[in-house]
Amino acid sequence: MNIPQTSFPRIVIIGGGFAGISLAKKLSKQEVQVVLMDKHNYHTFQPLLYQVSTGGLEPDSIAYPIRKILKDFPNFLFRLAHVKEIDTLNNKVLTDIGSLKFDYLVVASGSTTNYFGNKAIKKYSMAMKTIPQALNLRSLILENFEDALLTSDLNERNTLMNFVIVGGGPTGVELAGALAEIKKGILPKDYPDLDTRMAQIHIVQSSACLLKGMSAKASEKAEAFLENLGVNVWKNVRVTDYDGKTVTTNADLTFETATLIWAAGVKGATIKGLHAAELINKGDRLLVNEFNQVTGFNHIFAIGDMACMVTEAFPSGLPMMAQPAIQQGEQLGDNMLKLIEGEAMVPFTYKDKGAMATIGRNKAVVDLSRFRFQGVFAWFVWMFVHLFFLIGFRNRMVVFVNWVYNYVRFDREARLIIRPYKKKHKPKF
Amino acid sequence: MNIPQTSFPRIVIIGGGFAGISLAKKLSKQEVQVVLMDKHNYHTFQPLLYQVSTGGLEPDSIAYPIRKILKDFPNFLFRLAHVKEIDTLNNKVLTDIGSLKFDYLVVASGSTTNYFGNKAIKKYSMAMKTIPQALNLRSLILENFEDALLTSDLNERNTLMNFVIVGGGPTGVELAGALAEIKKGILPKDYPDLDTRMAQIHIVQSSACLLKGMSAKASEKAEAFLENLGVNVWKNVRVTDYDGKTVTTNADLTFETATLIWAAGVKGATIKGLHAAELINKGDRLLVNEFNQVTGFNHIFAIGDMACMVTEAFPSGLPMMAQPAIQQGEQLGDNMLKLIEGEAMVPFTYKDKGAMATIGRNKAVVDLSRFRFQGVFAWFVWMFVHLFFLIGFRNRMVVFVNWVYNYVRFDREARLIIRPYKKKHKPKF
Predict the structure, then answer these.
(1) Pairwise CA distance, residues A149 & A152, whole Å
(2) DSSP reduced 3-state for B307
(3) Are A79 and A35 in contact (CB under 8 A)?
(4) What's the distance, CA A378 to chain centroid?
(5) Read out DSSP for A140-193?
(6) What is the full per-residue pLDDT of chain A (429 aa) written as tens digits?
(7) Distance CA B56, CA A353 (A)
């Protein structure tokens, strides 16, 4: 790889997500050379992907060019690269565009969808972890409605208009709410010649409550909001298989649907050459100590979703969410400079700032450390926080304009099939 | 096709571009059943495609869902369909989703890129007539710069950083200006480790001036603006071939480039079953009379780019631009109602409202019927007119926010490679 040698130590960061970017910002203007690699040339604001899928936002407004984030940082280089392997013996990163030696390595490659080994579900279901995936889902939803118009077979039409979301975490809940609002507000106007009341939205959760990890009140309220919107909430049900048409579960329950959205789990986006933590239930993450050092190494770190940092409050590792990623990135920035200077590093402590989820218009649940609230005010807090964490003034303005418009007009205008998904990928029944 | 029979005559419109949409609006709330078919579910505002290609705008803000345009019109149906053939004997449209009988048919299928029979150019060059094409070009431009970083071969690097635009019409001129501004304002910041001064932008025009059809003053000024921005303008040169790397011309001139953008011509998007006008130089369009009736038919019409309407001022047919399309659509709406009522139709007369093109920041040329001007004021007029003709309040707001931001910040933030183009499509040399 064409990277100039400098007298500064070289830090290679793999991944431009929340963790990698917050680390990079901390390392700006320091006496280090930083090479950030990502397979995309943009940072994705994942919490709003579901709005891209449901036509509420354009993809460009929740993504930000990584080069632009780094442009004022001296000694920073970006490379668009797929990392294939880490050679820990020679301190090298091997990628599709060549290899690169590092003095320090930070793995911030994030997470990927966890299908728990089910190949059929992986093949036929839709994931929503990246912008292309979110756009594929947007296309498929709209294509299904166009196809529903064409058939006179009632079963087939219902199959096309049913949506099954697996996973009752924030992603699943927010998507279910958005689909329910589309069903109510947009479909009847867009498809006057289709009985869109038949469209069904199901959310299936394997445990006893939605939004596990949030308060009982938030969970109950979210469920009530969803049911008010007409979403069918199935708890204590585990989806076991899907053939592209029929969803089977461990209960006496099946669904006929052309669209299964899999939001039931994530796991670390592992890279060859580093062993995943061998502890059970850690989801392919790298076990790190309180300095984010990967077990067995002083100069290789993991942060964000890829890091499994066990604490007293979180015996199976900190949650795979934006907050730990951002906080670890920032702290590691300080710690790496200390390490290079030969000073003692400061152990990471996680400040739990709470969690939130929106269910729809005027409906959200927010758990802060001191306050818990639900409803309209929570919804405004949710919007404010998401606008605040979005990178870039233009993105904030465009998202804000869209939200105001969507709110005032009860609308979502980005319902465009820019690249058709179905004809290429879905099996015919 | 699942279309209910009513007592109203059925008008089938093929195409939801400027022509089809303005006709549809005229036919709303009338005693006719209208079925509009398009292969996309959205209307594209083509004049701003070049801004999508160059990262200035998101695609969703220059597209508008067709169903939403039609939603308040009774007796209107939309079908997402590829029209395969027109059966004029049985008055049927044959599509990929079935066939449909019509009482009246309006062909408004627009135009497609004209490669004048050169298969190599068709294979290796980039077109910019649709949103997916514009996004492919955006990806390729950015991928080329990422690749330029990786090679130490100076020739290869220059090939990757050279851009050749064929065609000096508004599309070519506007794209050349936008690329020049990216070269000047964004590349040096985004690629500090690349000598982006080596990037070259060429525009090649086969005739003696740019913006043929506009005034001599506009043409000269556009050329001066481009040259000021560092664009190489080649006139009286015809590109004859391209193998993915080397562009050959009819002059003693070749270019080495990984990116040839073909904006040198369009032709009608013909449909099997209707004969194209047999006149020469009409570009596969359907010859129509002053009522937009296709030669030989009373009940089959063509409007917009597909229609070749010969007038005294335009002996080879009205220009293939937005204005004739919109005007023909509106007039045909009135005329069809007259025809159905048995009244006499009114011949179409083209009101030439002028033409305009923007070259870059504060630089545009405008020819109105009474006034001609160039420079800053022209640029503001250009922006105002384009905002005005864009469909939808949200789109206008989002485009406006982007333009203000881009202007104030000298920036274009949508430089995202959402779907890589190069690895899939470009040959390796």
Answers:
(1) 8
(2) strand
(3) yes
(4) 21
(5) HHHHHHHHHTT---HHHHHHHHEEEEE--SHHHHHHHHHHHHHHHHTHHHH-TT
(6) 889 999 999 999 999 999 999 999 999 989 999 999 999 999 999 999 999 999 999 999 999 999 999 988 989 999 999 999 999 999 999 999 999 999 999 999 999 999 999 999 999 999 999 999 999 999 999 999 999 999 989 999 999 999 999 999 999 999 999 999 999 999 999 999 899 889 999 999 999 999 998 999 999 999 999 999 999 999 999 999 999 999 999 999 999 999 999 999 999 999 999 877 665 566 899 999 999 999 999 999 999 999 999 999 999 899 999 999 999 999 999 999 999 999 999 999 999 999 999 999 999 999 998 899 999 999 999 999 999 999 888 999 999 999 999 998 888 888 999 999 987 777 665
(7) 36
Exposure string over A292-321, b if 16+ CB within 10 A, otherwise e: bbbeebebbbbbbbbbbbbeeeeeebbebb
Token pair recorded at residue B103: 């009482």
Tell me how far apart the alpha carbons of residues A389 and A396 are, in angstroms, rounded to a whole number: 9
Distance CA B67, CA B80 (A): 10
Nearest residue in B to A399, CA atom: B398
**Which of B71, B80, B141, B143 to mutate to test binding with chain A, by most A CBs within 10 Å of its CB?**
B80
Residue positions counted in chain B? 429
Mutate to test the interface with B, among A80, A157, A396 (most CBs of B within 10 A): A80
Q: Between B4, B68, B398, which is nearest A401 by CB?
A: B398
List A162's β-bridge partners, or say none. Answer: A200
Radius of gyration of chain B (CA): 22
Interface A-B: count of C-beta contacts within 8 A: 147
Shortest Cα distance, chain A CAs vs residue B406, angstroms? 9
SS3 content of chain A, % helix, strand, coil (to 5): 35, 25, 40
* Cα–Cα distance for residue pair B367/A9, rounded to 1 Å: 59
Q: Rounded to a whole number, what is the distance in Å from the CA of B191 to chain A's nearest CA?
A: 8
Structure tokens at B164: 């050749």
Query: Nearest 5°: CA angle at B39, between B37 and B40?
Result: 105
Q: Could you tell me the end-to-end alpha-carbon distance of chain A, in angstroms, rounded to an integer? A: 48
3-state secondary structure of A266: strand
d(CA A157, CA A117): 31
Residue that has been written with the tokens 């990502």 in this structure = A38
* Cβ contacts of B253-258, under 8 Å, gap ≥ 24: B255/B162, B255/B164, B255/B202, B256/B155, B256/B158, B256/B159, B256/B162, B257/B159, B257/B162, B257/B163, B257/B164, B257/B202, B258/B140, B258/B144, B258/B159, B258/B160, B258/B162, B258/B426
Going along chain A from its start, the domains and CATH numbers come out as: 10-39+81-113+266-341 (3.50.50.60), 119-264+361-424 (3.50.50.100)
**8 A C-beta contact, residue B395 and residue A398:** no
Of A258, A320, A311, whose CA–CA distance to A108 is shortest? A320
> Cα(A426)–Cα(B283) distance, rounded to whole angstroms?
38
Concatenating the DSSP letter of every residue in A73-135 gives -TTEEEEE--EEEEETTTTEEEETTEEEE-SEEEE---EEE--TT-HHHHHHSB--SSHHHHH
Active site annotation includes A290: no
SS3 call for A318: coil
Judged by CB atoms closer than 8 Å, whether chains meet at A40 and B189 is answered as: no
Of A31, A85, A146, A174, which is the active-site residue? A174
CA distance B58 to chain A (A): 6
